[in-house]
C-alpha cells in the first residue's frame, strides 16, 4: 500500500472508526499507520480525534477518514454520534487484557447499530509483541468470533506487525462488496472534494470525560 501526501482528487473516501476499551492500543495503531513508525509518547485520547490519510491502493486513490475514540464507558454515547456514514469499524482489544476481549461484543453491537447498514468490522487483537503477558489466545478469540461476521487480525502497534494489513484487509473487503454490487461505488465519491486531503489530525475533546484505564 503506497502512501501519498500530495493533494489530489480522490476516487474514493472511506470513513473508518476505531473503537474498543481504553488502553487497547487504538491511538497507537492509528499513529503507526499514519506515520509508519511507533510513537512511544501516545497521550490518552479524550473525546474523539480525527485523522486523514491519502493512499494509493491497487491503482485507486483513496482517502481514509479515521475517527479515533476514547474507550471510556461514559464516553460511549458521544462516540456513537461519530459512527454516521462509517463504512469500516476497527474494533481493538488488548491480548494481555481479558476485560478488553469481553467488551468486544458491546463494541461490535455499537458499530452495527450506529454505522452504515453495510458496515464491515475488523476485530484487532493488539499487543501481540507482549508474548509472555498474552492472556487471550488466537484460537479462543477466533472461536468466540465465529458467528459475528467480522474480520480478524493480530497486530502490534509497537513493532508495526500487520498494522498496514489491518487497514488493507478492511479496504479489500469494501472493494469486494463494491465489485459484487453489494454497495454502491457512488456512495464514496461525493464528499471526496473540498475536504481534508492531507494527513492531519484534529482533536475534538470532551473535557468532562475522565481518564480511565483497563484494570488488568
Ligand atoms: N507493547 C505494546 N504496547 C502497546 C501496543 N499498542 C499500544 N501499546 C501501549 O498501550 C498503551 C495504550 O495505548 P493507546 O494507543 O493510548 O490505547 P487507546 O486507549 O486504545 O488509544 C500505551 O502505553 C501504548 O504505548 C502494542 O502493540 N504493544
Ligand atoms: Mg486513544
Automatic annotation (TrEMBL):
InterPro entries: Rab_GTPases_membrane_traffic (IPR050209), Small_GTP-bd (IPR005225), Small_GTPase (IPR001806). One of its GO terms (molecular function) is GTPase activity. PROSITE patterns: RAB, RAS. SMART domains: ARF (SM00177), RAB (SM00175), RAN (SM00176), RAS (SM00173), RHO (SM00174). It comes from the Eukaryota. Coiled coil: none annotated. Keywords: GTP-binding, Nucleotide-binding. NCBIfam families: small_GTP (TIGR00231). Belongs to the small GTPase superfamily. Rab family. This is Uncharacterized protein. It comes from Paramecium sonneborni. The lineage of its organism: Eukaryota, Sar, Alveolata, Ciliophora, Intramacronucleata.
